[in-house]
Amino acid sequence: MEHTEFNKDLIEFLDASPTPWHAVATMQNRLGAAGFEALDEREEWSLEPGKGYYVTRNGSSIIAFRTGTKDVATAGIRMVGAHTDSPCLKVKPNPEIRRKGFFQLGVEVYGGALLNPWFDRDLSLAGRVTVLDDGGKVRDTLVNFRKPIAVIPSLAIHLDREANSNRSINAQTDLPPVLMQVPEDDTTAFADLLKQQVASESGIHANKVLGYELSFYDAQGAALVGLREEFLASARLDNLLSCYIGLQALLATSGDEAALLVCNDHEEVGSMSAEGAQGPFLGAVLDRWCAAGKTRAIARSMMISADNAHGIHPNYMDRHDENHGPVLNQGPVIKVNHNQRYATNSRSAALYRHISDELGLPHQTFVVRSDMGCGSTIGPLTAGILGVTTLDIGVPQFGMHSIRETMGTRDGYTLFQVLREFMQRSEVF
């Protein structure tokens, strides 16, 4: 697979994954097609050497792994971590808003979204819906309207003369999307619209909508951009890009070594959930896989936390440390923060650099300006809970947490090649 083929498939993955539930479903399909066996946390497991398995939690987090052909306690595990969620606008439980004949939905901002780019975009809606079907059974199903069904119109500059110099956004009053126009006496319930969508997508005839977790998303698909197509623009690059890279690396390994991919939900809001990186999901899977050998296995293992990095913006070069400004298409970025916002240490960074150098591939380093705050990832959380040596790395991008982000077309494939080699390396530490 060359980088052009890699990016074409990446675009398909991004477009098929508008929410964490859809991303996990997409990964499940690909894992199943590659012969990985589904596990159920409620049942006994009987794991065999040299086999591939996956398990999901909440439908929005997934762990996939190859058991390898060696004793896991003495061989260790090559782990890669990412997250399935992205900042977005989520529909409230009682969302209907009617003003002057316009039907709108109340939304809650999820994560640290960059809000200005959400205005005047073609928006669609997707997520998970829980219904009571006509047989009296409670069922979960996924919905995706796919087409543009809403917009958040900007206020004209004639009515807001300070818009270009002093515009603020009120998340409660400025963000409800407009879905349609209705008569003044309209009593349309959002639940009724959902029942229609559920029936059309899955054939489930719902007597009642019992709950949902739905997100608006940019209906414009991922695309190559630039005069020479040096860039790829899409929603949710942070961090579905890393999910895709980790998945492709796991699928491409020989299977001789024990390797694992974990993609957690809720990273953008702190990871404290049953399926988040601060929760017990990964530890529970390792307990069942490694049993009494878990502590020994962890001591011989390494985690690479893959989450995108801030590429240096040519219009805002002063926002980076002058010696640590990653450039798009010049390689993945080793992320360093001695205050432990990133889990990288000299040992984990050295292993990545060594593998990358062996393959003749580029790499870069990011350190935030000393007078600015630093973001974080699942890396420090996983390292602190498991005690595993960890590296934080990511593909550089523009516009992090925007509704549409931009990456270089070569960096994802570069990271894939290094992670593939890492996951099948006979010795880590």
How is this structure best summarized?
The chain is an alpha/beta fold. 26% of the residues lie in helices and 27% in strands.
Description:
With 429 residues, the protein is an alpha/beta fold. Helix 5 packs across helix 10. Helix 8 (346-358) links the parallel strand 16 and strand 17. It has ten helices and 20 strands. The chain has helices spanning 3-15, 20-33, 72-75, 190-202, 237-252, 281-290, 294-299, 346-358, 378-386, 411-423; strands at residues 37-38, 52-57, 61-66, 78-83, 88-99, 102-110, 123-133, 138-144, 178-181, 206-218, 223-225, 231-234, 259-264, 302-306, 309-310, 333-335, 364-366, 389-394, 396-398, 405-408. The protein folds into two domains: 3-86 and 235-423, Aminopeptidase (3-Layer(aba) Sandwich), CATH 3.40.630.10; 88-218, Aminopeptidase i, Domain 2, CATH 2.30.250.
Which fold name corresponds to the CATH topology of the largest domain? Aminopeptidase
Query: What proportion strand?
Result: 25-35%
Query: What share of residues is helical?
Result: 25-40%
CATH class of the largest domain: Alpha Beta
Question: Residue ranges: pLDDT <50 for 5 or more in a row?
Answer: none
What structural class do the secondary elements suggest?
A: alpha/beta
* DSSP E strands, number: 20
Instruction: Give me the oligomer status.
Output: single chain
Just name the CATH architecture of the largest domain.
3-Layer(aba) Sandwich
- How is the main sheet built? 9 strands, mixed
